[in-house]
Design brief:
By secondary structure, the protein is mainly alpha-helical. The protein is built from eight helices and six strands.
C-alpha cells in the first residue's frame, strides 16, 4: 500500500531536485496530477482563465504530493482540500499557488520574457539561489511532510467512501 503515491512523489522530487530552475506554464485545465507536476516546478505562471484544482479529494483521496499547506497556507489549503473546488489562474496567484497570471493570449510571450531574465543569471549562481530556497523549505519540513502525505493518501483508499467510489468507477467508468 502506498507504492503508487511514493513513486509519484519520487518523480516530483526529481523535478524539485534538478539543479537548474524549472518553469511551469499553465493554461486550460490543470487538475489532479497536473497540479502536482506544476507545484514541483520552481516558478509557475498561469493563464488568468486556467482551472487549477485537485477534484479527487471529493471522491477518493488527497493528493499524492500534498503541497497545499506549503504553497497556500493553512486556511487556503484547508478550503481547497475540504471542497475540491478549482481555482482560476487569477485566484491561484492570490492564494499563493502560482507566481503570476496573464491573459491567455499573452501567456507564452510573458513566460518567455521571464525565462529569458532567469537565463541571464550565471547557471552556477542560479543553482545556488534555487538550492537556498529549497533548503529553507526542507528545513521547515516540506520534504518530510510531503513524504508523510503519501501514507495518508494510501490510507484513504481503505475508507468506505473511497472503496465505494472505486467500485463505481470500475463498473461505470
Amino acid at each position: 500500500h502506498g507504492q503508487w503515491s511514493r513513486h509519484v512523489v519520487d518523480g516530483w522530487f526529481r523535478v524539485w531536485d534538478l539543479a537548474k530552475p524549472v518553469i511551469a506554464q499553465v493554461h486550460g485545465y490543470c487538475l489532479a496530477g497536473g497540479t502536482e507536476l506544476a507545484t514541483s516546478c520552481d516558478l509557475v505562471y498561469v493563464a488568468e482563465d486556467a482551472q487549477i484544482g485537485y477534484p479527487p479529494v471529493r471522491l477518493m483521496s488527497p493528493p499524492d504530493m500534498q503541497f497545499h499547506p506549503w504553497l497556500m497556507g493553512m486556511r487556503q489549503a484547508m478550503e481547497s482540500m475540504l471542497t475540491g473546488d478549482s481555482l482560476s489562474g487569477t485566484e491561484a496567484v492570490v492564494k499563493g499557488w502560482a507566481n503570476r497570471a496573464f491573459a491567455a493570449a499573452d501567456l507564452d510571450a510573458e513566460v518567455l520574457k521571464i525565462a529569458e531574465r532567469v537565463a541571464k543569471i550565471p547557471s552556477d549562481i542560479q543553482q545556488i539561489n534555487k538550492r537556498s530556497v529549497h533548503r529553507a523549505m526542507e528545513i521547515m519540513g516540506l520534504r518530510a511532510a510531503v513524504r508523510s502525505g503519501t501514507e495518508i493518501q494510501a490510507l484513504c483508499f481503505h475508507t468506505d467512501s473511497s472503496k465505494a467510489y472505486m467500485t463505481r468507477f470500475r463498473r461505470d467508468g
